[in-house]
Structure formats: C-alpha cells, structure tokens
Amino acid sequence: MSELTRAQLRREREKTSALWWIAQTSSWLALFIVVSLLAVMIGIPRLGGATAYTVLTGSMRPGFPPGTLMVVKPVDPNEIRPGDVVTYQLKPGEPTVVTHRVVGVGKTAGGEQRFTLRGDANNANDPLILPEQIRGSLWYSVPILGFLNSAISGEQRTWLTWLAVGGLLTYAFVMLIGAWREKRTVKST
Max Cα separation, the chain? Predict the structure, then answer.
C-alpha cells in the first residue's frame, strides 16, 4: 500500500470518528443559532420595515415579561382595533416609547381620533394617545431575546452583522479550498 493511500485512509477514518461528527454538528448548530438570531433581531425587521424593541418593565406581564423582544411594524392608525398591541411615543416627537394594549378607540367632539391604552398588568389606562404618537403595531415577539437586543447598540449591531457575514464568507472559502484540495489529491492518485 502506498504512502498516499494510507494518508487517504487515515483522513477518511478521521472524518467518520465520533469527534469529527461532534465537531461538525457543533459548528453547524452554532452557525444556525447565529444566523437565526441575526435574522430575528436584524434581518427580518429591516426587510419588513419594522423596528425591534425590548420590554423593560413588567407592565405587559404575563404575555410579554421584561426581556421580550418585540418587533413592531408601522401601521395606519385607522386600522388599529381594541386588543392590538402598539408601541407609541410618550410625547409626540420624542424618542421614548411604550408598548401597551389598545383598550379603546374613539374620537373627540372635533372628530380627532384618540386611543386608550393600558399595560396588561396595569390597573389604570395611559393618557389618551394621538395617532401621530403611534410608532407601530406588534408584528412578532420573542421571549428573552430582548436582553441581547438591549445589550447591543446600533453601532455594535452593524459591526456584528459585518463580522457574521465575513465569518460566513470565510467559512465558505475554507470549505471550498478544502474540497478543491481533496479533489486534486484524489485526481493525482
């Protein structure tokens, strides 16, 4: 048996060992988790024109405890109904937002639309909300993921996304080179 054939047999045995399978499964699982987290927290909201927020207080318990990631899509205020969960600005034009459930939709004597909202765990309604304060309606939520969302700033999100893209491209390149080298080795025998 030639030295080249022994090396090929050794490589094949290494590829079928328990350690090889554990390493392959772990790397694919890690890749899947990272890509899934990026998709849920960044990709899907951006593609859908939505914004991800994190529940910081217990006002929406038990359905949305603190740490829940809430992805909110812009909505026409005329489509909002009681029971919808919406995110609104505390004061028009200011960045601070709250996410609560709509408990009433009405109009003033002058015909202007107003919304009554309340946190699921709260006993009192919020002050009346104007349509221009509404940032959007709940699209989807993921428990616990909000803690990670809060820990990562906008700038960190950008470089983490590029880091993940670079890692995936590097992984693809390494796999391509490995396949090319293996093909060359097999052809030369």
Answer: 96
Q: How far apart are the C-alpha atoms of 2 and 4, rounded to whole Å?
A: 5
The whole-model pTM stands at: 0.71
- Please tell me the total number of residues recorded for the chain in this structure: 189
Cis (ω within 30 of 0) for the bond into 62?
yes
**All structural domains of the chain with their residue ranges:** 3-47+152-188, 51-149
Q: Please write the tens of the pLDDT for every residue from 110-146.
A: 989 999 999 999 999 999 999 999 999 999 999 998 8
pLDDT at residue 1, as a whole number: 55
Query: What CA dihedral angle connects 168, 156, 92 and 43, to 10 degrees?
Result: 10
User: CA 165, CA 157: separation in Å to the nearest integer?
Assistant: 12
Above 80 in pLDDT, residue 90? yes
Architecture of domain 51-149: Ribbon (2.10)
